[in-house]
Amino acid sequence: GNVNTYVDYKPGDIIGLEYCAGTYKTSPSTIIATEETTILALDNYRFLNPCQNYCPRHARILNKAYVLLSRQNQSLLNRIKELSMSSTKKKVMCYLNNIRQATRSSEFNIPYNREELANYLGVERSALSKELSDLQKQGYITFHKNHFTILKKEG
Prior knowledge:
By secondary structure, this protein is mainly alpha-helical. It is 46% helix and 7% strand. It has a 3-stranded antiparallel beta sheet. It is elongated, with a radius of gyration of 19 Å.
């Protein structure tokens, strides 16, 4: 079947944070690890309600959770923007510009091969390959495999 990637988790991230205070008993999402992963399951109530002493460890965990939730929210807003673009070319350039902003560099690696990037952007792989080739010919980007350089903004 089709695979839709909504969030890429990094080492140290808290998975399922968005469901912690909700009414879900289990996550409505499927999470697939692409490399060896260790998962620590936490009790929602104890996670959200610190002990009376409010120990420093709990404070650090909650602070990290707030930072991660903020980052995930920004990532999802970027994702909505990428998917709402009206053409494959605009989706590609929006995605690449979001990576450029996140890395603060015009040269970067993306975490996807062509098939995975096509799935992520909700486009056909052949259409993605054509647009990448066209963008390179037009001087907007250069790329080799998953290494990209943005030369100028798409206008």
